[in-house]
Structure formats: structure tokens, C-alpha cells
Amino acid sequence: MADYKIWMNGRLVPQAEAVLPVNSAAVFYATNVFEGLRAYWNPQDEELYAFRLAEHFQRFRESMKMMRFTVPYGDMDLYEAVRTVLSGNQLREDVHMHMVAYVTGPGLDATGPTGLYINPRLRGRVTEGKGLAACVSSWRRTNDNAIPIRLKSGSNYQNGRLATLQAKADGYDTPIFLNQRGTVAEGSGATFFMVRRGRIVTPTTASDILESITRTTLIEEVCPNILGMDVVERDIDRTELYTADEAFFCGSGYEITPITSIDRFPLGSGEVGSITKRISTAYLNLVRAVDSRRSEWRTPTYRRVAV
Ligand code: PMP
């Protein structure tokens, strides 16, 4: 992977210089919040369009508020940082970025000072269209009364890490979490959708899931307006997983990643489903501006605009 420079607290620095103090709450207690987002290169416009930047900034601010961080940045500061890291690395291709806010003070009660870095990296399609073999994890999703899973706090990901390592040790590609109520929550780093009896279904945001931006993109635009199919938001029971016709994960990083079996039950024919393929194509056309709808969701990063 290319060794891109990192934007850290106002400067572009080589990866080796982007370091955190060992006694910071960020290192010791994982006191960080972050966003994972993609920007897509458009050769016609010679422009890198960041997808749904405003929504990522909004969730980033909510995460900092919820985790009681001192917040020294406005949206325009964040936008300038994104522009600087992309143009400073002369990126003219699709790119994934991690934008991370972290607390450098020591101790459990530290709320600042808050640092910020943006780490750009190349990241292709997660499976290049291949289907994942998923399992229902024996680890449960952490509950909203324990830690705010609906936002993106780095510490939440220890839950996903344990489930992922367990799934791999057991011979699967990836876990699906149930929540404490025993209904389906999500993947370790992606939202879950299934197709069952001709309906596209996903858990509600009261299911201990991240409030995913890709999820709303599918619910508000891709499924109803491009494919003419509404998404049903409701609880999903475990046995519905095994009798689903199709399933997939979605997310800024995952885009649309098919699931073809769960606990070794093949879904439908056991191949990537046709509705999943149509959703994937429509989503990628939208983020790449091949489909010109919702232009407000694609923010140029070489040309400066108001955000
Ligand atoms: N759930 C979890 C736990 C995630 O980490 C992600 C990736 N951010 C998602 C869902 C998908 O969220 P989004 O569509 O906003 O990227």
C-alpha cells in the first residue's frame, strides 16, 4: 500500500511521524471517534468527489459530542483538511479515508485536548463481487445503554474485533451480530440487509446499529427511486437469516458486499443475488456520478465549495 502522507493537526506528515503519546487517553482507553469515507475520481471532471461529506461531518460532530470531546473544528476546517490531504498526496484515483479525532490528555476523564488526523488509503472493493460466508456470532452487539454504538467511537470496535476473530477461527469470513434482544443487528463494520419474499429488509436504527450513511442512501434513494423497491425497516429474527433469498452488507468502505451463506445455509441459489447485484450497480453509479441524481451528495475536493 502506498505510503501516503497523513494530515495531522494542520500539517502533512510522513506516516512514521504521525504518532500519539503513550499516556494519552487515545492510546490507553481508545478515546477516539472516527469516520470512514470514500472519494471517487471522476476523469471527465478531473475531480475527486467525496460522497456524503456533510453527513459524515455531522455524525463526526455527534460522535465527539456524545463522547464528550472538546471540539475545536468547524465543518469548513474539516473540509479544508480533506482537501489538503487529497491534493497534497496528488491523489487522482478512488480513495478511502479515515478521519480520526482523539484525546491527548491522560486519564479516563480527559475530554481534550482533541487532535485530528486524516489517513488516506487505497481500498478496492471488499470482495470484488464475491459472496461472503457469514455466521451468527456468539458475541452480542453492545447495547445503547452501555456504549453509544449508533456513533463511531473506536472503542466500540473491540466488540467487532472479537466477533471477527471468532468467525475466522471457526472458518467463516465474517460475523453477523444479534443485539441483546436477540434480533439481528449488523456486521462488524457494515449494515445488514436481506431480501426475503420479494422485500428488501434491514433492521431499524433502534436495533443497536451504527446510524449508517450508506443505509440511508439505499433507503432514501437507491432502492425506491432507482430500483422502484421500498426498504422495510423492522426487526429481523435469526431464522429469517437462514431462509433469506439474498443478503448483503453495506457501508462507505464495504459499498455493497454480498453474503451468500449464513451458518453454512446457502441463501437462495447460493450465488450472489440478482437484487443485490442491481443495488450494487445503482449504488456505484450514484457515488461515481455516472447517475447524476443527488449531486448535492458529491462534494468536489479539488475545487473549493461551501459546505
Ligand atoms: N456499521 C458499522 C459497525 C460500521 O463500522 C460501518 C462503517 N462505518 C457501518 C455500519 C456502515 O456505515 P456507513 O454507511 O456510514 O459507512
Task: Describe the protein's architecture and organization.
- It is a single chain.
- This protein is an alpha+beta fold and about 300 residues long.
- The protein has seven helices and 16 strands.
- Strands 7, 8, 9, 10, 11, 12, 13, 14 and 15 form a nine-stranded mixed β-sheet that branches.
- Strand 14 and strand 15 form a beta hairpin.
- The two termini are about 30 Å apart.
- The model has no long low-confidence stretch (mean pLDDT about 95).
- The chain binds 4'-deoxy-4'-aminopyridoxal-5'-phosphate (PMP).
- The site of 4'-deoxy-4'-aminopyridoxal-5'-phosphate has 13 residues, from helix 5.
> Can you give the mean pLDDT?
96
Question: Major beta sheet, specifics?
Answer: 9 strands, mixed
Distinct small molecules: 4'-deoxy-4'-aminopyridoxal-5'-phosphate
Question: End-to-end span in angstroms?
Answer: 31 Å
Q: Based on Cα principal axes, name the global outline.
A: globular
The SSE order reads: EEHEEHHEEEHEEEEHEHEEEHE
Structural class: alpha+beta
Helix content: 25-40%
What is the number of strand segments? 16
- What are the low-pLDDT stretches, counting only 5+ consecutive residues below 50? none
What is the gyration radius calculated from CA atoms? Answer: 19 Å
Number of helices: 7
* Strand content range: 25-35%
Question: Can you describe this structure in just a few lines?
Answer:
This protein is α+β, with helices and mostly antiparallel strands and 307 residues long. The chain has helices at 25-28, 53-66, 75-88, 157-169, 213-227, 238-242, 274-287; strands spanning 6-8, 11-13, 32-42, 47-51, 95-103, 114-121, 132-140, 174-178, 184-187, 191-196, 199-202, 231-233, 246-251, 255-262, 265-266, 298-300. The longest helix is centred in the C-terminal third of the chain and has 15 residues, at 213-227.
